[in-house]
Write a structure and sequence with these properties.
The complex is a heterodimer. By secondary structure, chain A is an all-beta fold. Chain A has no helices and ten strands. In chain A, the strands form two sheets. In chain A, strands 2, 4, 5, 8, 9 and 10 form a six-stranded mixed beta sheet that branches. In chain A, strands 1-3-7-6 form a four-stranded antiparallel beta sheet, with no helix packed on it. Chain A is globular and about 35 Å long. The relative contact order of chain A is 0.33. By secondary structure, chain B is mainly β. The N and C termini of chain B lie far apart (37 Å). Classes of the chains: A mainly beta, B mainly beta. The interface between A and B is medium-sized, with 23 and 20 residues.
Chain lengths: 114, 111
């Protein structure tokens, strides 16, 4: 079946502009996660959603970052007033629900802020 | 989540078994041991997980020490496609739901 998809695959933006990154989770998965991976680094947790519950935003690095999930499915990660340090690969994952279930990752969006 | 320690890198010859170790001496009774891998330019991929007993699936085997302070991911026959960074992660069933990725072990498979 279809896996997690993300768009765009690559995004180049100028410093100070806003960007939106999209994630389509696996159908039926109620939990959705966002991570980012800077060049040569490990993954850093950003935020997760479970169904219609309030998201856990504890990993968001600043108030320039926000995310929403519409209808319990598609999610959008928004970065306002982008900075060069925001350059990274942004990865989305989904799982059947919260807990110790395995997470299925998308291919990521490579964001470059110039 | 409790911390894990893995070697930075390992090498294996193609078609030979690979044993990737992970130490987790502060593991709690409710921590599951998960393994993920990340192939070059791809998102992480789930490999296997277990709690106390050894586990087998189509990708690998997971051997868990009796005291659970260490575990070993076993690839029975390494292929070039297995070249990746392998992450050992502890997940508390009652704790945070996100994954804490450390630096992992970079596996190089030699043809």
């Amino acid at each position: 079946g279809a896996g997690v998809s993300q768009s765009p695959s690559n995004k180049v933006t100028e410093k100070g502009k806003d960007v939106e990154l999209r994630c389509d989770p696996i159908s039926g998965h109620t939990a959705l996660y966002w991570y980012r991976q800077s060049l040569g680094q490990g993954l850093e947790f950003l935020i997760y959603f479970q169904g219609n519950s309030a998201p856990d935003k504890s990993g968001l690095p600043s108030d320039r970052f926000s995310a929403e999930r519409t209808g319990g499915s598609v999610s959008t990660l928004t970065i306002q007033r982008t900075q060069q340090e925001d350059s990274a690969v942004y990865l989305c994952a989904s799982s059947p629900r919260l807990g110790v279930y395995e997470q299925y990752f998308g291919p990521g969006t490579r964001l470059t802020v110039t | 989540d409790a911390k894990t320690t893995q070697p930075n890198s390992m090498e294996s010859n193609e078609e030979e078994p690979v044993h990737l170790p992970c130490n987790h001496s502060t593991i709690s009774g409710t921590d599951y041991i998960h393994w993920y891998r990340q192939l070059p330019s791809q998102g992480p991929e789930y490999v296997i997980h277990g709690l106390t007993s050894n586990v087998n699936n189509r990708m690998a085997s997971l051997a868990i020490a009796e005291d659970r302070k260490s575990s070993t991911l076993i690839l029975h026959r390494a292929t070039l496609r297995d070249a990746a960074v392998y992450y050992c992660i502890l997940r508390d069933i009652a704790g945070a739901n996100n994954l804490f990725f450390g630096t992992g072990t970079r596996l190089t498979v030699i043809p």
